[in-house]
From TrEMBL:
Species lineage: Bacteria, Bacillati, Bacillota, Bacilli, Bacillales
Entry-linked Pfam families: MerR_1 (PF13411)
Segments forming domain HTH merR-type: 8-76
Entry keywords, A to Z: DNA-binding, Repressor, Transcription, Transcription regulation
PROSITE patterns: HTH_MERR_2
InterPro entries: DNA-bd_dom_put_sf, MerR-type_HTH_dom, MerR_fam
Keyword Repeat: no
SUPFAM superfamilies named among the record's database cross-references: Putative DNA-binding domain
A GO term, aspect molecular function: DNA binding
Annotated protein name in UniProt: MerR HTH family regulatory protein
Length: 99
């Protein structure tokens, strides 16, 4: 796992890094745009990748997008990524390429 994906940052620190309020960050979680981990005590933990994602979300909101539109765009991006991986796998299998 990359250091960028380790969930170690508190919500307060994420708020300071992004300029977003704690409430905004929680709202984006409610809208299923961000997925922090929870400690046993229920504290949210974020990664550097999450911080980057939140900054991108904030920029898109500032540009006038709705959270539902952002979610749809992310879904399409994930679908394309999965499709590309499947096609690569099929091509590798067809041509006998092993990694």
């Amino acid at each position: 796992m990359s250091y960028k994906d380790r969930k170690v940052i508190s919500i307060g620190t994420v708020s300071e890094l992004t300029g977003l309020s704690v409430r905004q960050i929680r709202y984006y979680e409610e809208r299923k745009l961000i997925f922090p981990e929870r400690t046993k005590g229920g504290t949210r933990r974020y990664s550097f990748s999450d911080v980057e994602r939140l900054i991108n979300i904030a920029n898109q909101i500032e540009d006038g997008l709705q959270t539902s539109e952002i979610k749809k765009m992310e879904k399409r991006r994930e679908d394309r990524k999965l499709r590309d991986q499947m096609i690569r796998g099929q091509l590798n299998a067809a041509f006998g390429i092993r990694k």
